[in-house]
Design brief:
2 copies of one chain form a homodimer. Chain A contains 11 helices and 16 strands. By secondary structure, chain A is an alpha+beta fold.
Chain lengths: 408, 408
Amino acid sequence: MDLGMPNAWIEIEGGVTSPAGFQAGAVNCGIRSKKPDVALLLSDRDAALAGAFTSNRLAAAPVALCRERVARGQARAIIVNSGNANAATGAQGIVDAERMAALTADALGLSAASVCVCSTGTIGVTLPMARLESGIRAVVSQLSSDGGPAAARAIMTTDLVPKEIALELTIEGKPVRIGGMAKGSGMIDPNLATMLAYLTTDAAVESAALQACLLEAVQDSFNRITVDGDESTNDTVLFMANGAAGNSPLQPGHAEWDCFVQAVREVCGRLARMIVKDGEGATKYVTVTVQGGASDGEARQAARAIANSLLVKTSWYGCDPNWGRVYDVVGYCGVSVDPNALEIKLDDHFAVRNGTVSTATDLKSLQAVLRQDEFTLLVDLHVGDGTDTVYTCDCSPEYVRINSEYTT
Amino acid sequence: MDLGMPNAWIEIEGGVTSPAGFQAGAVNCGIRSKKPDVALLLSDRDAALAGAFTSNRLAAAPVALCRERVARGQARAIIVNSGNANAATGAQGIVDAERMAALTADALGLSAASVCVCSTGTIGVTLPMARLESGIRAVVSQLSSDGGPAAARAIMTTDLVPKEIALELTIEGKPVRIGGMAKGSGMIDPNLATMLAYLTTDAAVESAALQACLLEAVQDSFNRITVDGDESTNDTVLFMANGAAGNSPLQPGHAEWDCFVQAVREVCGRLARMIVKDGEGATKYVTVTVQGGASDGEARQAARAIANSLLVKTSWYGCDPNWGRVYDVVGYCGVSVDPNALEIKLDDHFAVRNGTVSTATDLKSLQAVLRQDEFTLLVDLHVGDGTDTVYTCDCSPEYVRINSEYTT
């Protein structure tokens, strides 16, 4: 995620309500026991809207609704519930998602077409609309320009920590802010995840440019993380730009466009990293880089296979320098590899060189790498110039405990 | 695995030494602490040899050696060590595998070309040849026609139980036996697994027919099981037919060929089932059948994705009727599905019908299914006639514990 460009932004404390003109709020409406389960994010004026969504063929009802809103390119509000994904809910699911938009629009005096809807949680249970109706009425009264942290908590499911970030940069001499929040800690895989992320900015951004900028940032952040290889039905990233900063609309060609893009990439990268670090039961953050692939696609295929191998992930948990499992994955994942040149490194230490145990292999050094909270696994296939990187975590018994007790 | 044909065989107690003319033995040579780690299987006469191997591109040295032996179609002996896979060991690995064959051949007065070699265990450590040399000398003196059970124990790594079976059938009025043993409980995935299996028969079988029969049986047994989705560098199935029963060589067209084939399928099916049941940390045996696929290949793709989903496997462990995770996998695994017709059933109970929660969905019944040691998950994609079945197990915290502590 490091572009080697100057960091023309500074990090500030905050989240989605840090940019001017945004308010947020949260309440509990009874979908989840005691925890907040309804969040509302509002822009005080029309905002350009961009979005990225799950590629799951059984995408949930609210994803279909948000896709329509993003096609329009404009929105005012986003209503989110946690605890229930409104997925696999058939025609009723669509009716309910549209009703959530209508209820929110009514309460705010907006048109339903300007309200986005997201749901996350259990799949296959119809939304408890009576509870949501009262929740939506209640959350409007909670709206505040300090409401970002409350909203970040209300979108959580198995997350242990809320995930927020805000950056400030200068555009045309004016201070501009970008805020973000995200949820997700399981069912996380490249091509999005059981993951919701919301970005806000008070910069004015041309609508098509906002969409292009978001897709590029998502590709190098949320699409590069994996916790367990499962891609959800509900993954959604939405980005609202309301122009409250008063700059002329940003787009390619604007002198500060690249700076803005880099800041958006940073926000997405940081939120993605927070998701992996909060991976269910995770104790380690691992960067898996594959180079020397026949193509970038093959490098990606290998990096994903390694990052999702249960045997590899459990060995990381055990701080076990069992690089043989990485070697095994490289062999079965379907990519071209030079068996006599293959290299596997943990941070700066070779495990495999010239396709076999390196004379420089030092198990104690490898184990010391694995005992760190963060490390890099580098695999060089020695076939071509293809390269890719995936960010992931280890798999602990706690992951299994969490996921064997989710609905019941 | 049920072909709907009459079972013309009976099961008898025994394993690879049950057929006439086979001896086996086992010793500890110090690769594993105290546990037997060298097994030898010997036919008293030339036997037709068939084999099936891992598709891993980084196949271990002994796999290359066995492929050569199978190409010749004949063998006398198989030497196996556990505790060290002789994989990722470069040129030295090949030298060592050939030396194992030569040492065994010398001790038995055979040609090295008639000795197969297998290794299973840790990847990337050069074989301790001095220990193996003394082990091979010692195991020859342990050969016995009662040695099957000892050999079945010596090939184990993380297996909790040895895996043996023997069947008796009648060919041309003569009693014929087929015996088998296998190891494997982790790094198990379709297209073979970290899995070794050995079949013996005293039937005379034409060499090409033996190979065809074995491949067909492997396809419907070892290639349909998955524990963790990882396919090993060492998977090998070998089948020796020594003709001690005195029948005319079996081949297609022989009146009892189909009966023999069915018995071989039964042996492979039973051994494959034993491997899944002994899956590391497994508490449940699950049959995943996908029908209604656009093709058999798509049905297989979906069945494998479901069987390897960590979220699905952990929900089984928790007896959690979280069919939403199955729904999610169906959506992301890349196969065609009719979202409005999709069905998901646990044994005879619908979880999803017409693409959504069935009015007949009864969580208590679903939970009762999951509380069983064995159950069937049926998914109907409602797109075409493609169908496939995979056999798998759940994922428990114990799996993670076992695999985070393997080499260290």
